[in-house]
Amino acid sequence: MSILIERVSGRGLPLAGNDIDTDQIIESRYLRMTTFEGIEAHLFESLRQASTHPFDDSRFAGASVLIVGRNFGCGSSREHAPQALYRYGIRAIVGESFGEIFAGNCLAIGIPCLSLTSQNCRMLMNICLAHPERPFDIDIRDGIICTYTQRFEFDLPPGRRERLLNGSWDALQVLLSEKTLIEEKLMYLPQVLRR
Q1: Distance CA 38, CA 153 (A)
Q2: What is the CA angle 106-107-111, rounded to 5?
Q3: Is the pLDDT assigned to residue 61 strictly greater than 70?
Q4: pTM of the model as a whole
Q5: Which helix (H) or strand (E) holds 194?
């Protein structure tokens, strides 16, 4: 059964800075992990050891909407970065722009990456810093982020929006929903390949 993602709600977690690449999100030494279980413990690991980091700030504990700057998730195509964010509890990422492959990897696990103007990103970060308890309500269909009386329009490519809204972001569920078609196609294969 496909999961439709029409809305995402939660408190915000502001992460200032531009060009935060996937190696900062999850270091390459964790690419050897054979499962993603527990990978969230290593998010921004070196940065968190070096200084105070928003992911360790108790004001943002339990936040599920990550607010970032420009070109977030650039660099390598490792899917470990979105997986670690998802397992941490992030369900949407809002920023000026994203690494293309990173945004695609996020979509593949149901995390929408939503683009705003730089001015609106700064406003959202300031709202989070001043009111960390304030919830954000993201309407994927209408392209609006609401927090109390404030509304921000975001950009999401039409194909990605549609995949979130109709559940086709989940490739496994799409495959499983076509079981009859798969069985019909298997009948055309030689017997040796059907085993």
Answers
A1: 34
A2: 65
A3: yes
A4: 0.92
A5: helix 191-194
Token duo for residue 125? 């970060």
Query: Which contacts qualify for 148-152: CB closer than 8 Å, 24 or more apart?
Result: 150/123, 152/116, 152/120, 152/123, 152/124
Long-range contacts of 129-132 (CB under 8 A, 24+ apart): 129/14, 132/11, 132/12, 132/59, 132/60, 132/63
Q: List phi, psi (to 5°) of 191.
A: -50, -40
Angle, helix 80-88 to helix 100-108, in steps of 10 degrees: 50
User: How many CA atoms lie less than 13 Å away from 157 in the CB half-sphere?
Assistant: 10
User: Residue 61 carries which side chain, given as an amino acid letter?
Assistant: A
Rounded to a whole number, what is the distance in angstroms from the first to the last CA of the chain?
27
**Within its chain, how far is the Cα of 119 from the centroid?**
21
Q: What is the per-residue burial (b if ≥16 Cβ within 10 Å, else e) of 136-170?
A: bebebeeeebebeeeebebebeeebbebbeebebb
* Sign of torsion over alpha carbons 30, 31, 37, 39: positive
Q: pLDDT tens across 108-119, in order?
A: 999 999 999 999
Q: Which two tokens stand for residue 170?
A: 């989940």
Distances (CA, A) of 62 to 39, 53, 113, 132: 17, 15, 19, 11
Residues 133, 89: Cα–Cα separation, whole Å: 16
Give yes or no for residue 34 having a pLDDT over 90: no
Buried b (16+ CB within 10 A) or exposed e, 6-43: eebebbbbbbeeeebbbebbbbeebeeeeebeebbebb
